[in-house]
Amino acid sequence: MPAFVAGCAALADPGTLAPACAAAPLVPPGNDAAARAFFLRYFEPVLAGEGLVTGYYEPVLRVSPVRAPGFTAPLLAPPPLGQPDLPRASTEAAVTAGAWPGQVLAWADPVDAFFLQIQGSGRAVFPDGSERRLGYAGKNAHPYVPIGRVLIERGAMAREQVSMDSLRAWLHAAPPGEARALMDANPSWVFFRWRDDLPTVGGPAGTLGAPLTPGRSVAVDRGHVPLGLPLWIETRHPTEGGRLERLVVAQDTGGAIRGPARADLFWGWGEAAGSAAGRMRETGRIWVLRPR
To answer: 32 phi and psi, to 5 degrees?
Structure first.
């Protein structure tokens, strides 16, 4: 209920969700029976199908305001309009050569920066201990290529071995040139902006504009699922095993989230959330709750 109410507050035009959004704040907090009655009254479940359920999180990474040993990957604001749309390798080369026309927000470890771009938002911790939030601000026009798929095609990793943890380990263990070449196999580059408007407590803002709620917010393909709608997912828990069945809310999007039965579950921030998100790649069934 809190995630749904937060989503309603972020909707400029609730449309068909207007009756439910008006009634949701009246449901007594913590009253499970009342919440269940609310969803039964205002929504009907429609099976979207069986598809892939993955996870994502908000990384916490160390950064430097200037390029320094260990901090050699730039975190970039979007370039000025009309600039060439460069792939990953060319973008980083332009920055290194001093030819990048846009702003460098900070510098990070190359592997940390790579996974920050996959997640789309994060918390940057500076050497003095201060912290600022980074939010998604767009991407180049080049497609996202999963590096796990590249390693599978090369025979370097079995499909069942691929996870965020195993990919990080491979990149850290490989010679720097090989690690760079693998990351450059994904030509997509994500740009960021500082989100000093967001409190340090709570989740980052999703595409909808509402703060993401750990375990309750999902990224969807909004070409098939309108943002703000509740969904019911049935899948497998990535770390505990057993079934994971829960009501979630469509509040975000992602470059790799495509299709009507596709969901990316937000796990929160920090190491535990990263471990769960990195291991989650499960088949699941998804229902969309359509307004009655």
So the answer is: -65, -40
Mark whether 139 and 260 lie in a shared domain: no
What is the per-residue pLDDT across 218-269, written as a single tens digit (0 to 9) for each? 999 999 999 999 999 999 999 898 999 999 999 999 878 999 999 999 999 9
Report how far residue 97's alpha carbon sits from residue 131's, in angstroms, rounded to the nearest whole number: 28
Query: Which range of residues forms the domain containing residue 254?
Result: 2-57+203-291
Domain end marker among 174, 194, 214 = 194
Q: Are residues 105 and 118 in the same domain?
A: yes
189 in Cβ contact with 199 (< 8 Å): no
Number of domains in the chain: 2
Residue 146: Cβ-neighbour burial (10 angstroms; 0-12, 13-18, 19+): middle
pLDDT score at 160: 87
CB burial string 103-130: b at 16+ within 10 A, e below:
eebbbbbbbbbbbbbbbbbbbbeeeeee
Q: Which long-range contacts (C-beta less than 8 Å, at least 24 apart) are formed by 82-90? A: 85/140, 85/141, 85/142, 86/140, 86/189, 87/140, 87/142, 87/184, 87/187, 87/189, 88/142, 88/183, 88/184, 88/186, 88/187, 88/188, 88/189, 89/184, 89/187
